[in-house]
Amino acid sequence: MDVRAAVAFEAGKPLEITTVQLEGPRAGEVLVEIKATGVCHTDEFTLSGADPEGIFPAILGHEGAGVVVDVGPGVTSLKKGDHVIPLYTPECRECEYCLNPKTNLCQAIRTTQGAGLMPDGTSRFSVNGEKVFHYMGTSTFANFTVLPEIALAKIHPDAPFDKVCYIGCGVTTGIGAVINTAKVEIGSKAIVFGLGGIGLNVIQGLRLAGADMIVGVDLNPGKVEMATRFGMTHFVNPKEVEGELVPYLVNLTKGGADYTFDATGNVGVMRTALECAHKGWGESIIIGVAPAGAEISTRPFQLVTGRSWRGTAFGGARGRTDVPKIVEWYMEGKIEIDPMITHTMGLEGINEAFDLMHRGESIRSVVVY
Ligand code: NAD
Ligand code: DAO
Ligand code: ZN
Ligand code: ZN
């Protein structure tokens, strides 16, 4: 079938809106009509060429929501008409990783997904007979896409697509980092570096978890209003701190934070985040994705004296199990999403979403098909 898609033909070039051919679902696969998709920093990272695993031409996008229109042979958990959120971290419930409660990194389709292909090693997308690669197993910058059954979470049928698409990455990553990865306790002190689309969700996760002190750190003072609305109790702009940032933050938190989170992707910030975690027990969680070749460093004594460094992908969430629950939290008003969606546009306007992100003017732009 012909579908409309924003195709990344080359790194560093704007997406091209064009007609693409999509093959129907094969065994274990599902055809989904994408109704809305967020544009995340990670799409920009890949489009810019900074992603060492970036493959072109490809259909990017990994923060979607839509409706099942067809299922391939052997699909049992989904049917036509179901509302779904695509999962770039699938959940097969059978692999060694899914069976280990310590991780959410299902490996069932990891190799082919990383190569921009469906699990049988082929692509469903082409332009004039030339192969176009999938991206993160999701490719939500197309109005129809094909995914493995294990990479789809079935959600509440009344959930608004243009809001809950954000649960496909940013919301789950931020809230999950707090609840699943850090397991923050009531009364904790926390510091969040980077108040963008991920950091704001870390902040609302901390509020949900009952943290007492939620310090936000960002170079852009334009982020303060939104972060305060979501639960930030103190703001620090590193540009306005005289002297070193670490002792300033340790002093502010009276000894260091119980939990710190990097949501910038900057390795210098990651070091600061580790070092302002409390001696003896502070945990620092890396969420940000650093550029190719970047490395983190600190003095080992920081770890010897009880701080720990950890990381999280998709907020440690098991998508088919956890994403429907987060959608319910949104429907019940336990979490907020709407104010973070600062811009919406049609597919034709998708490059503007990247421009807004570069200028630091958006939290989330959502493309509505
Ligand atoms: P964003 O661009 O919306 O936000 C980043 C924020 O960091 C901005 O507000 C910016 O002003 C601030 N910032 C930049 N440099 C800073 C510095 N030196 N000190 C303090 N603040 C600084 O990006 P986002 O969408 O929130 O994504 C954040 C990171 O999370 C990215 O690296 C992204 O790739 C990554 N990410 C990771 C996962 C995961 O599963 N681990 C999932 C999604 C996104
Ligand atoms: O299992 O080896 C693996 C890779 C899992 C990929 C998880 C990606 C999470 C970080 C990328 C940002 C997503 C928007
Ligand atoms: Zn698995
Ligand atoms: Zn994302």
From TrEMBL:
Q: Residue limits of the Alcohol dehydrogenase-like C-terminal domain?
A: 197-329
Identify the SUPFAM superfamilies for this entry. GroES-like, NAD(P)-binding Rossmann-fold domains
Task: State the name under which the record lists this protein.
Answer: S-(hydroxymethyl)glutathione dehydrogenase
A matching Pfam family:
ADH_zinc_N
UniProt superkingdom = Bacteria
Record's GO cellular component terms:
cytosol
Enzyme Commission number(s) of this protein: 1.1.1.284
**Family, as annotated:** Belongs to the zinc-containing alcohol dehydrogenase family. Class-III subfamily.
Required cofactors, per record? Zn(2+)
Q: Which keywords has UniProt assigned to this entry?
A: Metal-binding, NAD, Oxidoreductase, Zinc
Example GO biological process: formaldehyde catabolic process
Gene Ontology MF annotations: alcohol dehydrogenase (NAD+) activity; S-(hydroxymethyl)glutathione dehydrogenase (NAD+) activity; S-(hydroxymethyl)glutathione dehydrogenase (NADP+) activity; zinc ion binding
Q: Where does the Alcohol dehydrogenase-like N-terminal domain start and stop, copy by copy?
A: 27-153
Tell me what reaction this enzyme catalyses.
a secondary alcohol + NAD(+) = a ketone + NADH + H(+); S-(hydroxymethyl)glutathione + NADP(+) = S-formylglutathione + NADPH + H(+); S-(hydroxymethyl)glutathione + NAD(+) = S-formylglutathione + NADH + H(+); a primary alcohol + NAD(+) = an aldehyde + NADH + H(+)
Organism (species): Hoeflea olei
